């Protein structure tokens, strides 16, 4: 560019024009440069350079899952990472699909985290405290009494009176049987066990002779007592003690046949 003329006013206008020209041409103010590097954040005002540090790479370890077909497979398997999850699909002890976590990185380094009942073995549940309220009465078939009162429990455990099926008296079903007989009847026993007893009420519709298994022992000369006449009722009592079944009776009751 030509030199500015001398003189106060002219020289100032000329200098101003020169400055604008240099800015437009990029001579007096270099363009800003952005640099990404591992260096700390900085800004060089003279060089118009902005340095932005690159964040360090973050490694996220995603838990992986391994399936064990059996406890033997689990014992033989080494965890890949401490965040791995093991699922044992067949587990007779803790329930199928029990959940395991690593305790190390060597074979078999697995600890039970969740079984089918949490960490509780479902086949060996130990209830050592707490209070159980508001539950349905546990049925006799499941080891309960089917009742929540002593009276109800005694009734349920004694069972209701039944009629014999095909003249058989099943000691496991009931301890009370009622039979209306009009012809001679041979009664049989089943599920007889030590400690059990059974009562049979025989209502004589017509005079008929009931008989019982030959191994039953009777008082006196070991002869079965005589039965009553028609219209009467006989009550027979049986109990098994030390492998022997003992029988007795009380006869000639007056009772309704209904």
Number of domains: 4
Outline, from the CA principal axes? rod-shaped
Give the fraction of residues assigned to helices.
Answer: 10-25%
Q: Provide the residue-averaged pLDDT.
A: 83
Low-pLDDT residue intervals, each spanning 5 or more residues: none
Compute the number of helices.
3
How many β-strand stretches? 16
State the order of secondary-structure elements, H for helix, E for strand: HEEEEHEEEEHEEEEEEEE
Radius of gyration in whole Å, from Cα?
49 Å
Please state how the strands of the largest beta sheet are arranged side by side.
4-5-6-7
Q: What composes the largest sheet? A: 4 strands, mixed
End-to-end Cα distance, whole Å, is 139 Å
Q: Give the amount of beta strand, in percent.
A: 25-35%
Structural class: mainly beta
Describe the structure.
The protein is mainly beta. The protein has four domains: 8-53, no CATH class; 65-119, no CATH class; 131-159, no CATH class; 161-254. 12% of the residues lie in helices and 31% in strands. It has helices spanning 8-24, 71-75, 150-158, and strands at 33-37, 42-44, 49-53, 65-68, 85-88, 98-102, 110-114, 116-119, 168-170, 176-181, 185-186, 188-190, 197-204, 210-211, 232-241, 244-254. The strands form five sheets. Strands 4-5-6-7 form a four-stranded mixed sheet. Strand 15 and strand 16 (244-254) form a beta hairpin. The longest helix has 17 residues, at 8-24. The model has no long low-confidence stretch (mean pLDDT 83).
């Amino acid at each position: 560019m030509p030199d500015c003329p001398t003189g106060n006013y002219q020289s100032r206008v000329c200098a101003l024009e020169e400055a604008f020209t240099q800015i437009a041409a990029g001579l007096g103010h270099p363009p800003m440069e952005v640099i990404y590097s591992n260096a700390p954040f900085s800004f060089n005002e003279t060089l118009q350079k902005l340095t932005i540090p690159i964040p360090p790479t973050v490694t996220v370890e995603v838990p992986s899952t391994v399936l064990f077909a059996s406890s033997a497979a689990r014992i033989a398997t080494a965890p890949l990472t401490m965040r791995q999850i093991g699922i044992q699909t067949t587990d007779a002890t803790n329930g199928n699909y029990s959940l395991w976590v690593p305790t190390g990185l060597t074979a078999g380094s697995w600890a039970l985290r969740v079984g089918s009942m949490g960490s509780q073995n479902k086949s060996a549940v130990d209830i050592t405290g707490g209070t159980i309220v508001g539950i349905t009465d546990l049925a006799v078939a499941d080891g309960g009494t089917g009742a929540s009162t002593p009276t109800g429990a005694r009734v349920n455990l004694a069972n209701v009176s039944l009629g014999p099926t095909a003249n058989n008296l099943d000691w496991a079903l009931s301890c009370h049987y009622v039979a209306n007989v009009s012809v001679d009847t041979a009664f049989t026993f089943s599920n007889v066990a030590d400690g059990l007893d059974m009562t049979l009420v025989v209502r004589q519709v017509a005079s008929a002779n009931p008989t019982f298994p030959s191994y039953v022992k009777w008082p006196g000369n070991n002869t079965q007592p005589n039965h009553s006449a028609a219209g009467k009722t006989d009550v027979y009592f049986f109990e098994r003690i030390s492998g022997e079944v003992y029988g007795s009776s009380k006869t000639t009751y007056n009772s309704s046949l209904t």
